[in-house]
Specification:
Elements lengths: L1 E5 L7 H7 L5 E5 L10 H17 L3 E4 L12 H5 L4 E4 L4 H11 L1 H7 L8 E5 L1 H4 L36 E3 L9 H13 L4 E3 L5 E5 L4
Parallel strand pairs: 1-5, 2-3, 2-4, 4-5, 6-7
Antiparallel strand pairs: 1-8
Length: 212
């Protein structure tokens, strides 16, 4: 699996993102990090539209895939993703995103099947990279860990997906509202001996996950 993890939006490597996709340019856009309780519906809709337009603008074919549609098990998420060459995950609240991934079964699908596909692309920004860390503990400094908007998951989840062996810290030293708080996350990681990588807005981390 190919990873394209941006600090903010597409970052400055959009051409490299496009090149990760071969003939199939279809990408499932996952907006669930925006499901936090205080989200304004109008701003959320505009956010989703903006992200979709950015992906379309570089030559990809995005379609919104809301993980909430798969919470009850009546729809097959594996089948829904079978025609896509990758996913693009929005930033937002990493704890809410983690909850949506668990309740929908996306986390298990990602770690057990999708990661083994050489050409499958997992892309996204901010929370999209954070959720791949082994632990979400450091992110409580920036995001509300107690926000549990889904009836199916009312316990806080502290474990990440575990595809990264370090904490992904976006918005470092950037013109972003969370940049000052990122400095506190760095200090926390140092105190807790948590490996971490910082990214400035515009930067993207591009990795290939080897099959186990």
């Amino acid at each position: 699996m190919q990873l394209y993890l941006s600090s903010y939006k597409l970052g400055n490597e959009a051409e490299r993102l496009l090149n990760l996709f071969k003939e199939n340019k279809r990408v499932a856009y996952i907006p669930n990090a925006l499901d936090f309780s205080a989200a304004d519906p109008v701003r959320k809709s505009a956010h989703i539209q903006s992200d979709v337009e950015l992906l379309s603008g570089i030559g990809l074919q995005p379609e919104v895939l809301d993980l909430r549609d798969y919470f009850d098990g009546n729809k097959d998420l594996r089948a829904a993703l079978s025609d896509f060459a990758g996913v693009w995950v929005s930033g937002g609240n990493v704890f809410v995103l983690r909850q949506a991934m668990k309740v929908s079964g996306f986390d298990t699908l990602l770690t057990d099947e999708l990661r083994k596909k050489e050409d499958f692309v997992y892309g996204g920004y901010s929370a999209a990279g954070c959720v791949l860390s082994k632990t979400l503990d450091a992110y409580k400094i920036v995001d509300d860990a107690t926000d549990t908007p889904y009836e199916q998951q009312k316990d806080v989840l502290w474990d990440g997906i575990g595809l990264l062996d370090f904490a992904f810290l976006p918005h470092f030293d950037s013109d972003h509202a969370e940049s000052d708080a990122i400095d506190k996350e760095i200090l926390y990681c140092k105190e807790q001996n948590i490996p971490y990588k910082t990214l400035r807005d515009g930067e993207a981390l591009i990795l290939t996950l080897l099959m186990e």
